[in-house]
């Protein structure tokens, strides 16, 4: 993202908007997981800021991800892969085990794939938390 300041600004703006919205639920006893969600969001913001200030990175292609619903839970797990074929093969394993998965692998923008693996893990963890939280809306 260091080489795309416009995208960086858009992501930063979206994360700030999300944080301002979620902060409104702090202290509401009916909203579970708000503190954890805010901590995850803030970790993503810090990780992206750190990664954005780094040196240029090697050329990377878009990645692919699919969502998988937990066995007997409503948790959502996000699985990411470097290729569409790898994502499709992995998703088939869950289908055979009768776990619900998203229909097709979703494209992960190259800007996210450019992030260091540990930073990407934080981004994907936050996304997974957000998807799981929507089940309770």
Task: Describe the protein.
This protein has two domains: 1-57 and 117-137, no CATH class; 63-108. The protein has five helices and three strands. It is 53% helix and 12% strand. The mean pLDDT is 78. It has a three-stranded antiparallel beta sheet with strand order 2-1-3, with helices on both faces. The chain is mostly helical.
Tally of extended strands?
Answer: 3
| Helix-strand pattern | HHEEHEHH
Number of helices: 5
- Structural domain count: 2
The helix-and-strand class reads: mainly alpha
C-alpha-based Rg, rounded: 16 Å
Overall pLDDT: 78
What's the layout of helices and strands?
Elements: H1 5-23, H2 34-52, E1 63-69, E2 76-81, H3 84-96, E3 106-108, H4 110-113, H5 117-134
Antiparallel strand pairs: 1-2, 1-3
Helix pairs in contact: 1-2, 2-5
What would you say about this model in short?
The protein is mainly alpha-helical. The protein is built from five helices and three strands, in the order ααββαβαα. Strand 1 and strand 2 form a beta hairpin.
